[in-house]
Amino acid sequence: MKKTLILYIEILVGLGLVLMVFNINGDYAAEKQLWRIDREFATIAQDPKASPDAAYDRVIKKYEHFIKRFAHSRLQPLGYIFLGRVYSTHQDYRHGRSIFETAIARNKDKSTICLMALSEIGKTYVLEQNFPKVLETYDRVFKSYPQSDIGWRVPLLKASIYSLQKKEDLKQQTLADAVAYYKSMSQKNKKSLVGFVALRFLAETQIILKQWQDAEDTFRTILIEYPDPQYLTPSSAAWILRSVNVIAINELKNPQVAMGIYQQFIQTYPRHRLNKTLSVLVDTLKNPPKTKTAK
Predict the structure, then answer these.
(1) Over the chain, what HEC string results?
(2) Mind spelling out the 3-state secondary structure of 226-260?
(3) 33, 42, 66, 139 - which has most CB atoms within 10 Å?
(4) What are the structural domains of the chain?
């Protein structure tokens, strides 16, 4: 469970992905230097406990030098993030959090940096099993960046923490509040990306609560109200259709539920690119392949 939570709260992992997100141009010297230090740190991170203090000190000094040398580079804020990670990897969580807080204080106008720093702060508290502080960090994210990737997921992350603490009542209440929140956001922001994302998280929460029919109704709403390619990307459509099928067949024991959703979509949008796939699914649900019986 702890590993799962750490994966959830890590927003960006790896220097390559970070540089892609920042779309850095014209900072070749800074980028090259950051790559070199990152490769050295990666060696330490492979076996943190086996690495001597001198190795950590060497990388720390290089990141500190980077921060000073490239004070006016757009990559400079990442130096704080990576420096804080070195301290955290060395299990000096307090010092690591201090570096992350500095990154936030000096980059208040850079939401990506602030979210990365908050993510790292939350991870240190998870590793310390300081759950009140984990929840406090989640609340900071939700208050400042409610529509970020991690901000949307905060209610579910908090429920996971309560589950880890075996506080079932708080977990169930948090999930119930999450359902109400996602419903409200979807209704207030119809026909928009915010509304679409809210419905996706609503469906995910209903699945966690095993509210199978409610989840199917939510998936129906997503398909009917958000048919455009900007919403029904190949990956999101695949997730929705797979979920609809699994719930109808395995949980509700009623393939007709999935068939009804697909048929309604085809009738509503007769020329939609997804119809060929949906027609195949309907035929398969009507005539499921026969399983071979052992002789």
Answers:
(1) CHHHHHHHHCCCCCHHHHHHHHCCCCCHHHHHHHHHHHHHHHHHHHCCCCCCHHHHHHHHHHHHHHHHHCCCCCCHHHHHHHHHHHHHHCCCHHHHHHHHHHHHHHCCCCHHHHHHHHHHHHHHHHHHCCHHHHHHHHHHHHHHCCCCHHHHHHHHHHHHHHHHCCCHHHHHHHHHHHHHHHHHHHHHCCCCHHHHHHHHHHHHHHHHCCCHHHHHHHHHHHHHHCCCCCCCCHHHHHHHHHHHHHHHHHHCCCHHHHHHHHHHHHHHCCCCCCHHHHHHHHHHHHCCCCCCCCC
(2) CCCCCCCCHHHHHHHHHHHHHHHHHHCCCHHHHHH
(3) 66
(4) 1-128 (1.25.40), 210-286 (no CATH)
pLDDT one digit per residue (tens) for the chain, 295 residues: 555 454 444 433 444 445 444 544 458 899 999 999 999 999 999 999 999 999 999 999 999 999 999 999 999 999 999 999 999 999 999 999 999 999 999 999 999 999 999 999 999 999 999 999 999 999 999 999 999 999 999 999 999 999 999 999 999 999 999 999 999 999 999 999 999 999 999 999 999 999 999 999 999 999 999 999 999 999 999 999 999 999 999 999 999 999 999 999 999 999 999 999 999 999 999 988 776 555 4
